[in-house]
From TrEMBL:
<keyword id="KW-1133">Transmembrane helix</keyword>
<dbReference type="GO" id="GO:0070403">
    <property type="term" value="F:NAD+ binding"/>
</dbReference>
<dbReference type="GO" id="GO:0033320">
    <property type="term" value="P:UDP-D-xylose biosynthetic process"/>
</dbReference>
<keyword id="KW-0472">Membrane</keyword>
<keyword id="KW-0210">Decarboxylase</keyword>
<comment type="pathway">
    <text>Nucleotide-sugar biosynthesis; UDP-alpha-D-xylose biosynthesis; UDP-alpha-D-xylose from UDP-alpha-D-glucuronate: step 1/1.</text>
</comment>
<keyword id="KW-0456">Lyase</keyword>
<dbReference type="GO" id="GO:0005737">
    <property type="term" value="C:cytoplasm"/>
</dbReference>
<keyword id="KW-0333">Golgi apparatus</keyword>
<keyword id="KW-0735">Signal-anchor</keyword>
<keyword id="KW-0520">NAD</keyword>
<protein>
    <recommendedName>
        <fullName>UDP-glucuronate decarboxylase</fullName>
        <ecNumber>4.1.1.35</ecNumber>
    </recommendedName>
</protein>
<keyword id="KW-0325">Glycoprotein</keyword>
<dbReference type="GO" id="GO:0048040">
    <property type="term" value="F:UDP-glucuronate decarboxylase activity"/>
</dbReference>
<comment type="similarity">
    <text>Belongs to the NAD(P)-dependent epimerase/dehydratase family. UDP-glucuronic acid decarboxylase subfamily.</text>
</comment>
<dbReference type="InterPro" id="IPR016040">
    <property type="entry name" value="NAD(P)-bd_dom"/>
</dbReference>
<dbReference type="Pfam" id="PF16363">
    <property type="entry name" value="GDP_Man_Dehyd"/>
</dbReference>
Length: 318
């Protein structure tokens, strides 16, 4: 029997590269499609010797041609860190709208099941806490983060359109803050920023007074949740994230502790529209997928630290 073929857009990024590994480990053939705008070929170069792995350098906002059959299309291409999507606002809007349209059109043509990487940002600066999937959100469409949040909200609507009007089997995962190896040290997100600063012995830059909260999920837990969702029958959005909520100040202190750094904490202005709280309600994922996160924060931070140290030892600047 021919093997299952999976297309992963954004496959050379942080999450995409972990998904490529997971689908290969499940015995599938994987096509990793990426234009490398925020990704890095080094994230997948260890897969190049596997004959079931293929890399396609392509912008998914252009027409996508993939020869042969496809069983699954996972659309993960998009700038994802606030620094990246503020630098690339139009590309972010295009990949969420045109890119999602192209990826859905391809899934429709191939009879493949489609999964979109959505985000907790669809809830914006939430007025409901913790966030459940039936909350419609509090997003400022014309604020700086609107380019990302609205692109993802449009992507969800487009996905539901293809499900309802074309009968495409679709899945929507709302991903909450995830961390782990292969994040870029300079992508500006809290974890790489803090670890890089701690390793350089610099002060950690906490934005605002640090009382805003986030809930951090280790990448292996996220990948397991996504895999289960793809294999499930659930057509509506599902939150995947770790409900362990903490303030950013507590998070910065945890990084200082784990690195054993002598760094102190310094405060910088809070970016515009920075959500004040964020915590996933994962009741739905627990009940329909039997999924709960397994990796404790300390364990996940240690694994991520080991990765960053290795990168730095191999000559990468921090
Ligand atoms: P990332 O930047 O590491 O990966 C994104 C990848 O998409 C990169 O390799 C980039 O080069 C590629 N890409 C961007 N635009 C493209 C285009 N037009 N054509 C082809 N490739 C393109 O980010 P990540 O953290 O791995 O995020 C992956 C996905 O998950 C994104 O869609 C993001 O919105 C979503 N997400 C991530 C998180 C998180 O905590 N990491 C949270 C919520 C949602
Ligand atoms: N943050 C911070 N210092 C940094 C980077 C981020 O205090 O150097 C804060 C940021 O303002 C936000 C939280 O950490 O409140 C998480 O930011 P991140 O960019 O990781 O993700 P977000 O959840 O905002 O998309």
């Amino acid at each position: 029997m021919a093997s299952t073929r999976v297309l992963i857009t954004g496959g050379a990024g942080f999450l995409g590269s972990h998904l490529c590994e997971r689908f290969l480990a499940e015995g599938n053939e994987v096509i990793c499609m990426d234009n490398l705008v925020t990704g890095d070929l080094r994230n997948v170069e260890h897969l190049f010797d596997d004959p079931r792995f293929h890399f396609a350098h392509q912008d998914v906002t252009e027409f996508i041609h993939v020869p042969g059959k496809l069983d699954y299309v996972l659309h993960f291409a998009s700038p994802a860190s606030p620094i990246d999507y503020l630098e690339l606002p139009i590309q972010t809007l295009k990949v969420g709208s045109l890119g999602t349209h192209k990826a859905l059109g391809l899934a429709h043509a191939k009879g493949a099941r489609f999964l979109i990487a959505s985000t907790s940002e669809v809830y914006g600066d939430p007025l409901v806490h913790p966030q459940k999937e039936d909350y419609w959100g509090n997003v400022n469409p014309v604020g700086p983060r609107g380019v990302y949040d609205e692109a993802k909200r449009f992507a969800e609507a487009m996905t539901m359109g293809y499900q309802r009007y074309h009968g495409v089997q679709t899945r929507i995962v709302r991903i909450f803050n995830t961390y782990g190896p292969r994040m870029r040290l300079n992508d500006g997100r809290a974890l790489p920023a803090f670890m890089g600063q701690a390793l350089r012995g610099e002060d950690l830059t906490v934005f605002g007074d640090g009382s805003q909260t986030r809930s951090f999920c280790y990448v292996d837990d996220l990948v397991e949740g996504i895999y289960r969702l793809l294999m499930s029958d659930e057509p509506l959005p599902v939150n995947i994230g770790n409900p362990h909520e903490m303030t950013i100040l507590e998070f910065a202190k945890a990084v200082i502790d784990i690195t054993g750094s002598g760094s102190k904490i310094t405060h910088r202005p809070l970016p515009e529209d920075d959500p004040k709280v964020r915590q996933p309600d994962i009741t739905k994922a627990k009940s329909i997928l039997g999924w709960t996160p397994q990796v404790e924060l300390r364990d996940g931070l240690e694994r991520t630290l080991a990765y960053f140290k290795k990168r730095i030892e191999s000559g990468e600047s921090v």
